[in-house]
Design a protein that fits this description.
alpha/beta, 5 domains, 19-stranded parallel β-sheet, 5-stranded mixed β-sheet, 13 helices, Phage tail protein (Tail_P2_I)
Length: 721
């Protein structure tokens, strides 16, 4: 019983007093109730004061005061996780105890940025003259050229080759091997997926660097794509995707990071040597095929193929060994596999791949909409019946592949088709949607090899209902026309966390809304009556001169297009835009209406016809160059044109890769212009990965490193990926 309870205190009074008080209307009890309430407030405040002594339990307003006591310096927050600095302040004591050690630099790299990191003391790798009587270090006098690993590790975080001195500063990202230099290698590309070992029907193992549940089950085995007779790719879309090591978490904090803890690319020679030793050496502990292995392939009986029956080889020419002891041959650098004998149907694989963030369909957590209601689970996507999904919420329970076109026939009630936790379902054809007036379809976490088609539902009458308005507004695509959206027949399509290898074609002419978020898409060919909103996504037309966003026929203008934190490879032809911000458009963007709307903190190439632009590139760079040149001497028109062309060429976006499926797809290259890498409104990068805040993460790390280096040392951040 709470001693500050009203009944407890009132019960301590004599019976005669309580009787008299009851007769007087319980006035005394009311007074005790007020006093008890105040006493409870004081008691709770005293308990909170005790909790405020510790960073783990203190109130949010106390965190800055505790941080001030230990000299904590705040970092720029990374939305949305760093709402407060509680964890950072709590870790600071541990950092201070280990100040000046390699372990704390390793830990700092991960804690501050969220990226796997390795600290390398470059002065340990300097070639030095040997003092033969004491402290002989033969490794610092010569280079071992006998093994393949030395060559494979060249210029990486695990490079052991000795170097002569490099006197350039490491902070300038030029010098490395010098006495004061410490390099922090960071892997900005995150690993998704992972492999597990399935034996006797049970599946164990851990997820890769990113994962929702932490432990992947059989549902995470994706379906390999058959690209020819007995020719498969690990990637379900049939692309050559390099496999990586699924990084394992450190056993405990402040432990030196090892190879197993980072998502490095798997190499043929390393896996070949490891598998050969596993087959020929009794008691050998495999580096790559322990628990969990770096990859797994399911056989016909549903269990993982034994590692001793796996061969690693070059499958560039699709030529595999025929040794009967080999069940499957894999090529980790190309992401291919072949079977020696009849392959299972289907071929199920587990592997890890890297990408710049949680975009597109993949094995990462996608928060469901709590307002969608209870979902009906589709356990096997390969045998799913699309016709049985007219409305409601359907969750795909495995990473299966649906052969052919997936035809959805929704009614006027909302329909949601989403991927389950740790699943990556893929449609090997197109997703066909029969649009109906007032209908709504949401696709989340799916992949579509052939893209999406939104068409008129048979007998819907959408074409006839809107034909009159279409004929009477034949000049609607001109700058003087009005909006064409027919609200009574509008249809809504939401594409979230999806990967579309084929174009999204919207031929339904009843109008509506297309919303794309966190998706990787091919070209968008959308009817002009539709409002398009793209956020944190990529739209790939295939080339800078190819149409990326256009009308349903692929050439004429579409309707309204709004972009936020989006990278568009190709041209845009649209009627109007309300807002384009923090985005990159590599092709010429043409809008018929330029009186309204705004383009801000974005890159649009020269020759684009857009609404008013604010702090966009290359406009800013050209204006700054012209101002600097004109300050020295007056400029003629030829000189102005030369400077304009030079600056426009310099500020063009440079990507690590333009190949869809590659780990560095649409990642801004280090050699690219800083105006794009730091040109968004928040000072971060423009385009698809704006929401990853990579520039801010790296700046936080550089800021924090200065606190924990030994006197006289200098640190530099090196991008391992």
């Amino acid at each position: 019983m709470n001693p500050l309870d009203v009944d407890s205190i009132y019960g301590l009074l004599p019976v005669t007093v309580r009787t008299s008080d009851a007769a007087a209307g319980c006035t005394l009890r009311a007074l005790i109730e007020v006093l008890t309430q105040q006493a409870q407030y004081l008691d709770a405040d005293l308990e909170q004061l005790y909790d405020n002594l510790f960073i783990q339990t203190c109130a949010p307003w106390v965190i800055p005061y505790i941080g001030e006591l230990i000299g904590y310096r705040a970092l720029r927050p990374i939305p949305p996780a760093n709402a407060t600095a509680r964890a950072d302040v709590a870790d600071t004591i541990g950092y201070r105890r280990r100040k000046g050690t390699v372990a704390v630099l390793d830990q700092l790299g991960f804690d501050v940025t969220g990226w796997p990191s390795v600290a390398v003391e470059f002065f340990q790798l300097l070639a030095v003259s040997q003092y033969v009587r004491n402290h002989v270090r033969p490794g610092n006098a010569c280079v071992d050229v006998h093994g393949f690993q030395s060559a494979a590790d060249f210029d990486s975080a695990f490079d052991t080759m000795t170097r002569s001195a490099d006197v350039r500063r490491i902070a300038s990202a030029r010098g490395r091997y010098n006495i004061p230099n410490v390099g922090i290698f960071v892997w900005r590309l995150l690993a998704y997926g992972g492999a597990m070992l399935a034996v006797g029907g049970s599946t164990t193992g851990t997820a890769g660097f990113a994962g929702a549940s932490g432990v992947l089950g059989a549902e995470a085995f994706s379906t390999a794509r058959e690209v020819g007779p007995n020719r498969y790719t690990f990637d379900p879309f049939g692309r050559d995707v390099a496999l990586v090591n699924p990084p394992q978490p450190l056993a405990q904090s402040f432990t030196i990071t090892q190879r197993a803890n980072v998502p490095y690319a798997l190499r043929r020679d390393a896996l070949y040597v490891d598998l050969e030793a596993l087959r020929t050496t009794p008691g050998y502990q495999s580096q790559f095929f322990g628990v969990p292995p770096v990859l797994a392939v399911l056989d016909t009986n549903g269990t993982a193929v034994d590692a001793k029956a796996i061969c690693c080889c070059d499958l560039a020419e699709w030529s595999a060994p025929t040794d009967p002891a080999i069940r499957v041959s894999v090529d980790p650098e190309l992401g291919r596999l072949m079977f020696n004998g009849p392959p299972p149907q289907p071929v199920r694989v587990a592997y890890a791949y890297v990408f710049g963030g949680p975009y597109g369909g993949g094995l990462y957590y996608q928060a469901p909409d709590t307002g969608e209601g209870t979902a009906q689970v589709v356990s096997a996507f390969a045998s799913a019946v699309a016709a049985s999904m007219p409305h409601g919420v359907f969750e795909i329970g495995d990473s299966g592949a649906f052969a052919g076109d997936f035809e959805l026939t929704p009614d006027a009630t909302p329909l949601v088709v989403r991927a389950g936790v740790d699943t990556r379902p893929v449609v090997l054809g197109r997703i066909l949607i029969d649009a109906v007036a007032g209908g709504s379809v949401t696709l989340r976490g799916l992949g579509a090899l052939g893209g999406i088609v939104v068409r008129d539902a048979p007998g819907s009458g959408a074409s006839s209902s809107s034909s009159a308005s279409t004929s009477s507004m034949s000049s609607a695509s001109s700058a003087s026309s009005g909006a064409l959206a027919a609200t009574d027949s509008a249809f809504t399509l939401n594409v979230e966390h999806c990967t579309l290898c084929g174009p999204l074609v919207w031929s339904y002419d009843g109008g509506g809304t297309l919303t794309i978020a966190n998706a990787l898409c091919a070209a968008l060919h959308v009817d002009e009556r539709v409002t398009i909103s793209v956020t944190d996504s990529a739209v790939d037309g295939g080339a800078d001169t190819a149409p990326a966003i256009a009308g349903a026929d692929g050439t004429s203008p579409c309707g309204e297009v709004d972009l936020a934190a989006t990278t568009v490879l190709g041209t845009i032809a649209a009627r109007e835009t309300s807002l384009i911000e923090n985005s990159i458009v590599t092709g010429v963007a043409t809008f018929e209406r330029t009186q309204g709307g705004c383009v801000r903190y974005s890159y649009v190439p020269p020759g684009s016809l857009t609404p008013q632009r604010f702090r966009c590139q290359p406009d800013l760079a050209i204006a700054a160059a012209l101002a600097a040149a004109s300050a020295a001497a007056p400029l003629d028109s030829a000189t102005e044109q030369a400077i304009t062309a030079q600056e426009a060429l310099r500020v063009e976006p440079v990507f690590v890769s333009r190949q869809a499926g590659a780990g560095g797809y649409l990642q801004l290259a280090d050699s690219g212009p800083a105006e794009l890498a730091q040109g968004a409104e928040s000072g971060d990068e423009m385009g698809l990965f704006h929401g990853m805040y990579n520039v801010r993460r790296e700046a936080n790390l550089r800021f924090r490193l200065t606190e924990y280096l030994r006197i006289g040392l200098e640190a530099g951040v090196i991008h391992a990926s």
